[in-house]
Amino acid sequence: MARCTAPVHGHRTASGAAACPACGGSYSRSYNYYPTYPSSYSSSSSYGSRSGSSGGSRSSKPRWSRASSPVYYTSTEVTALTPIRHTVENLVVTKPELRDVFLCHAWDDRQGAAKELHDLLVLNGVSVWFSEKDVSLGVPLMRAIDKGLANSRIGLVLVTPALLRRLLQEGIADKELSALLARDQLVPIVHNTTYEALRDVSPLLASRTGLSTAEETMKEVAAKLAELLIYEPENV
Length: 236
Prior knowledge:
Layout: H1 6-9, H2 14-19, H3 24-28, H4 75-94, E1 99-104, H5 113-123, E2 128-129, H6 131-134, H7 141-150, E3 152-159, H8 161-168, H9 172-183, E4 186-190, H10 195-201, H11 203-206, E5 211-212, H12 218-229
Parallel strand pairs: 1-2, 1-3, 3-4, 4-5
């Protein structure tokens, strides 16, 4: 039996369908042909879109995304990030003096993944509270962190193997995470690990859908976060 080539070639044109050894005959006999697409695509997706681990293909754009933006989201990401966006929009109006985001990370990542994410966010115009930059010598660390949390709209938790180890030790990262979970205003960024590994350490954090570098680069994740966090209403 002839095999359909749609999963590879997509039958995005009538000629493509006609050339298919399985579908060509049926196409020539029917005037009601509709092109078939692989399941990882939708009609709004681009050829460059990649399937996410949840929520289908990255073919969605939330209402806060500019029409010209090259960034696409899964439907699950849009659903999870929409309440965060509502919080951002409200706090920009009511508390414009706050930083955009507090970055929670493991001490071990301060010169690695955490610094990379911080630098990319700043490059995209996001104001970030970052312990490596915002804690001065001689200032009590926990007090500085407490102020940083209070003066930021949203929290990011950079989930790495190092953070998972630190959470098990119930150190400073664990205290930061506890405060962020209590506020219900955080986005986990999973990097070089999995949600399954996170679930073993923090089921509460693992229950929050966030972003992951498993199928996107840190640069792409930072671009999504910048769209989410930056809001400039006309009256501000």
